[in-house]
Design a protein that fits this description.
mainly alpha; 1 helix; Protein SlyX homolog; SlyX
Length: 74
């Protein structure tokens, strides 16, 4: 009887371990899917910015020297 009990305990342990592994795999799969969505969003944003740069529609955020007001120590 002890041998059967040991086998049942080992089987229960293995079933529990597989169940936890299944949960972990599912959680990792969801995380990978979310990261892939984020990567695709970033890729499309990057393509948009690159296209704007190529088209010359990005405005320069730095004013020319003539447009700048002199610093207060002048």
């Amino acid at each position: 009887m002890t041998e059967i009990s040991d086998i049942l305990n080992r089987l229960e342990y293995l079933e529990t371990k597989v169940a936890f592994q299944d949960d972990t795999i599912e959680a990792l799969n969801q995380e990978i899917a979310e990261q892939q969505n984020k990567i695709e969003t970033l890729r499309s944003q990057m393509q948009f910015l690159v296209q704007k740069m190529k088209d010359g529609h990005v405005e320069n955020q730095v004013a020319s020297e003539a447009e700048e007001t002199p610093p207060p120590h002048y």
